[in-house]
Amino acid sequence: MDPLSGLPLAHRYIPADRKDSNLLIIMHGLGDRMESFFDFPRLLLGSKISYLFLNAPDAYVVGWKWYDLDGQQEVGLKKSRALLDQTLDALVHHGYSHEQIVLSGFSQGAVVSLYTGIRRKKPVAGIGALSGYLFGGLDDASNESRSTPIFMTHGLYDDVLPFDRSQMHSEDLSKAGYKLDFRDYPMGHEICQEEMQDFAQWLSAICL
Q: How many structural domains does the chain have?
């Protein structure tokens, strides 16, 4: 039986040892699936927090996608944002508070995390954006979200999503008052061990 019934997206839930622990939502990148990230608990905070892995809503050539890349990004992002907002509402119904939930993702998952997190009237506990960027700017960001801690990372040699764009967006977020922690690593469009150690340290500071 699914302990989190009613969620609009395919998912896997791994509960923490304690019921009052924080929950980390993890979203994959383009052409991938949630199973690729099932080692995150081992690499992050183990059973000290809960984990919710989400699959993107639409099939891609291989795997799944959160939005299209052919000029229809905003349409897909709005759809994914609505589904993520529904997911958050369902989690509240299951006993989580908004202040317990951290949004995170890699690549497209990072973009969805930022796009959704900065527009929420009821802020989440934090946003972890690994190798992503800020789509759509800050014009419709909610005032309430500006207290949200954000952890952004990017590879210096990323040939899929340019490092310079991510760095520029991190500066925009900082200037807007967000509590931003931006880290860069000597890597491409990927995840490295040092990055995960830094992510775990950041999560520990806001969750434990």
A: 1
